[in-house]
Amino acid sequence: MQITEVRIKLMDEPGERLKAFCSITFDDCFVVRDLKIIEGTNGPFVAMPSRKLTARCPNCRTKNHLRAQYCNQCGIRLKEPPIARDEEGRAKLYADIAHPINSQAREMIQSRVIAAYEEEKARSKLPGYVPPVYDEYDEEQTAQAAEPVSDAVRRKAHSGKEEIRHPHQTPGGVPEKDQTGPASGGVR
Fold it and tell me: Domains in the chain, please, with CATH?
């Protein structure tokens, strides 16, 4: 297995330990994204993509991050669950999503990514430097995808015809009954 492409996105935050994000492609057919290049005490190293570990709320069973004080769903105060610790006694709050399973693979990834990082860092100091495209999705496409879609547009997309309703009308066009009349005691 060979690393056929390395993409580096340098971070602009001076003084921070996180120096860059990276994606690597294996054999032109498998991509691993969101590797991090972090400045350690012995130089830069590659951290694998990871996710925060979670524990379930005893009341509603919703997943919450390990150090959450309150449940994101029902709001009850959470007891801090026992947290696993590494060999050095540090709390284990993250789990790798993808990672090498032997030291030879780890060294291959580390050396290739750090070399690409150093090259990108050198290019960034040249006049007229334009950062390469890190991902197929640029910020504009991501922002457009995050914009809410109105109900009218959603109905049109699903039915093929536009249907615009008053907010208090049912789908058949009949207005909802006012629940504040005398029969309901004036309560909505």
Answer: 1-49+97-139 (3.30.1120.40), 52-93 (no CATH)
